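Title: Request for sanity check on Putative F420-dependent oxidoreductase prediction

Description:
We are preparing a figure and want to confirm that the structure record we downloaded matches what your pipeline produces today. Could someone re-run it with the sequence below and paste the raw structure tokens into this thread? We only need the token string, no images.
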Amino acid sequence: MSKINFRSRVGVWWTSDLWPINDVIARAREIEQLGYASLFYGEAGGKETFTQAAALLGGTERLVVGTGIANIHARSAPASETATRTLGALHPGRFVLGLGVSHAPLVEHSYAGTYAKPLSTMRDYLRTMDAVSDKIEPNDQRPARLLAALGPKMIELSGTAADGAHPYLVTPEQTASTREQLGPDKWVVSEQAVALTADRETGLRRAHQHLHMYSQLPNYQNSWLRQGFDESDLVVGGSDRLADGMVAMGDADALAAHVRRHLDAGADHVLVQVLGDDQSEDPLPVLRELAPALGLS
């Protein structure tokens, strides 16, 4: 299993596409100072993922930076592999390559690609990455490679052809299932959305807003059905039951307790995604309040 230099067991998941990169770097520095060990972010048509990783790694000292995920339809497999090796050579143990097949609407409309047979597409992509010559940035510290794995077959692939899985929008029980399937020697880095609020209605509003897009994507619908939800939970924005299952709500202690449920279930590392009233809201105020409850320093 490739090494990752996590200083603690909790990190941050934040898509900062709407923020100027220098402001993102400034916040990444404070995230590092607060004791969070990592910063992961998505790729859905905003900033180019490897350029952003290079900026964040260069602007911080110990923070692990991860793609959560890099869309395999956005670039060729050799481009992903050579970029990954370069970042790994520059920042050993601090870059994590998360890869995902994305979703049909995004691939076909934003990238003008073809979305078919996601499992075999990912398998072929990984094989092509592995075939890149060892003469390009040769070292024995290749960055860890995680897959956005929700279904059992993709989870299996994350164990046989990668270093582990990056589950997103899952319950602690699903984290436990992923750990059981992968065994003890692969990484499980789970994401957990949180809404810091004493008002349940505010928490539910933020949760439904967060789930609005995801609830319309078949990959997540199928994942939630496998996790024990049913068709009644798959309304646009998700049911209240789904919102409670996917988003931790309450005070800092309640949110920290939910994060620990993923750790107790077998996650090596949990990524906290702060939900506010707007996608462009600064996550730092919540992260500052949450850090002591998580035992970070």
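Thanks, this matches our download. The first strand starts at residue 10 and ends at 13.
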